[in-house]
Design a protein that fits this description.
Blueprint: E1 8-10, E2 15-19, H1 25-32, E3 37-40, E4 45-49, H2 52-60, H3 65-75, H4 82-94, E5 99-103, E6 106-110, H5 114-120, E7 130-135, E8 138-141, H6 146-156, E9 161-163, H7 190-200, E10 209-213, H8 220-231, E11 235-239, H9 242-255, E12 263-266, E13 276-280, H10 281-284, H11 307-310, E14 315-319, H12 326-332, E15 339-344, H13 354-361, E16 364-367, H14 370-375, E17 382-389, H15 393-401, H16 404-412, H17 417-427, E18 433-436, H18 440-449, E19 454-455, H19 461-473, E20 478-481, E21 496-499, H20 507-515, E22 527-534, H21 538-546, H22 548-552, E23 557-561, H23 562-567
Parallel strand pairs: 5-9, 10-15, 10-16, 11-13, 11-14, 12-13, 14-15, 17-22, 17-23, 18-20, 18-21, 19-20, 21-22
Antiparallel strand pairs: 1-2, 2-4, 3-4, 5-6, 6-8, 7-8
Helix pairs in contact: 2-4, 6-13, 7-8
Length: 568
Amino acid sequence: MINPENPLIVQSDKTILLEVSSDHYEEARDVLARFAELEKSPEHIHTYRLTPLSLWNAAASGFTVKNILDGLEQYSKYDLPGNVLHDITDYMSRYGRLKLVREGEDLMLVSDDKALMAEIVTHKKVLPYLLERISPTKARMVSVMRGHIKQALVHVGYPAEDLAGYVGGEHLSFSLRSPTLLGHSFNLRHYQTESAEIFYAGGALHGGSGTIVLPCGAGKTMVGMAVMNQLQCSTLILTPNTVAVRQWITELLDKTSLTEDQIGEYSGLRKDIRPITISTYQVMTYRKRNGSDKKSINIDDFPHFQVFRARDWGLIVYDEVHLLPAPVFRITAELQARRRLGLTATLVREDGHESDVFSLIGPKKYDVPWKDLERQGWIASAECHEIRVMLPVEQRMVYATTEQRYKHSFAAQNPAKLPILEQLLKKHERDHTLIIGTYLDQLEIIANKFNTPILTGKTGVGAREKLYEKFRSGEINRLVVSKVANFSVDLPDASVAIEVSGTFGSRQEEAQRLGRLLRPKSDGSTAHFYSLVTRDTVDQSFAVNRQRFLTEQGYRYEILYDTDMINN
């Protein structure tokens, strides 16, 4: 049935075109975000693609073939191509046709599909983990290689549903507080409770591993605490940095009955292992200098990996799981008997390892479109602006003759961005403003020019926390920050961010930087995110890619030019 008023065109190559100008754009976008990946987002037509992983994640989070087909048919201009109908049905049906189960001490791979089992157990990626074929529907696998088996099956194209169960871990009794230790009212929000319950699944075998996707500012830490409260067991929490470690400790002490002697910090500064232990990815991946090939991963080269075996952990929490480094993937493959919770604002990984998060941490179990939580008032509303700035005339020839690998840093540090930055700072002089960038020389120039404190990777943990506290208290209302502030930094009063340079085309970075502004404002005001990019250079090209994930979440960038700013 043809309906020219609808905004979608579903194509036989499994791409989906979405017309931005349509009255039904927002509803169709929210439907697509659940099971398709956004590839391009220029002004008028956005391009999505159906992929096996996007469909498997949809299946794991409860979507059915009917849900997807109904959504596509509701908003499509034309009838759906027959091969797309077939491929959606096929890919969705592949998730869970193979199952990993435990029989005594044995790990079994089972399926009712005899032909599929015959194919899988002879596949070269699976054979190394096969011990014996028990029957046409059952095979005994190498028990300690549970994670590697799941990785192999994802690569083969038939992700297994892991029903092999988990160890309970060392018991730890505690409760959530209401009110908090500081006397504030505290109750889990409905989506925090719902996501924790879906993850736990009442202790059933199909629960206990997976990823919860929620926007920055939506309280992912509270979801982690809710899961910990359900399990009542010793927990290892891995975070991006030491500031995040301290924030977890503060939240746990304030909002649970846990005491200081039950919570350990395992960082570059302290090495305490306690029933609740919080560490960083950086510490975990510290590697001995022994002259070995850095591309190979030998577990013995990582001295702090002993933390994974130091206690009988019942749960491992991976905060900002999209940042998980390769060595931690390796140890995680060997920890499949422990419950694993991934927390993130985006499953996007710039290294393409989304399938490893799926197989080793667990599939996406819950997500909410950012705009849904904005409409409900749980995160702040935000307006995004891209301001395109020309290179000065005298630098255009220099840029044209610069080697390709240096063009981005040259263009991103365009000095013509400084007058625009000054204009924005005057416009928002009363607001709490973060000036964010990638290149330290550029940030130091800005900090000196505008007499603003600067925070970079060189800033010690203590000094960072003091600057953050001054910003929170209002003693200062501007802060220049490098990418160390991209993740797990709670600055609820930040209402303006000005991005002067980004890390190439990193979508996850753009999402995290906007996320610094999404804590709800006490006065209900709208946040503003500005991205300054150098016009007609690779800086502008990378900016288009960085914005792709936020476009998928419903944010539109107002495009302005330096001439617009000068004339205003």
